[in-house]
Each structure stands twice: as structure tokens, then as C-alpha cells.
């Protein structure tokens, strides 16, 4: 079973989320690319599935980070 589509979609999603990363987009993109290239030769379907699940967890964590950043900005701006 090929997980290529899921992996590419995950990569694109993470790249998109990296645009607002606090350390900068270039920093995020380099680390993301390195992480994906490190595991490019993995063939074990179970390991690939676990790595995809971990990637989806990272997506949720980044979304939470951005929501918190947005909330803090609004709170600071309007002194809620």
C-alpha cells in the first residue's frame, strides 16, 4: 500500500503552516525538508503510518500555537 499521497499532503500542509512560524519560514522549511528526507527510504508500512500520525499531531500543535498567538495579540490589543 502506498502512502505517497498522504505524505505529500502532510508535507504541503506543514509547509503552509510554517509561513507563520515564530523562528521564520526559512528555518521551518529547512528543518521540515531535513526531517522528510531523513525518512525517505522507509519501507515499513507500520512505521510510515506512525510517522504520518506524528506529522498530523504536529499540525494540530502548530494550529494551537497560532491560535494562542492570535489570542494573546487580541488580548494585548484590547486589554481583555
TrEMBL record:
Stored InterPro entries: Complex1_LYR_dom, Complex1_LYR_ETFRF1_LYRM5, ETFRF1
Domain of life: Eukaryota
Gene Ontology CC: mitochondrion
GO biological process, one term: respiratory electron transport chain
Pfam families with a match to the protein in the record: Complex1_LYR (PF05347)
Limits of the Complex 1 LYR protein domain: 5-56
Family: Belongs to the complex I LYR family.
Name under which the protein is recorded: Complex 1 LYR protein domain-containing protein
Amino acid at each position: 500500500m502506498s502512502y505517497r499521497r498522504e505524505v505529500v499532503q502532510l508535507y504541503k500542509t506543514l509547509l503552509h503552516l510554517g509561513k507563520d512560524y515564530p523562528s521564520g519560514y526559512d528555518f521551518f522549511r529547512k528543518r521540515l525538508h531535513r526531517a522528510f528526507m531523513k525518512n525517505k527510504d522507509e519501507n515499513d508500512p507500520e512505521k510510515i503510518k506512525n510517522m504520518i500520525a506524528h506529522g498530523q499531531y504536529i499540525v494540530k500543535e502548530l494550529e494551537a500555537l497560532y491560535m494562542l498567538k492570535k489570542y494573546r495579540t487580541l488580548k494585548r490589543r484590547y486589554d481583555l
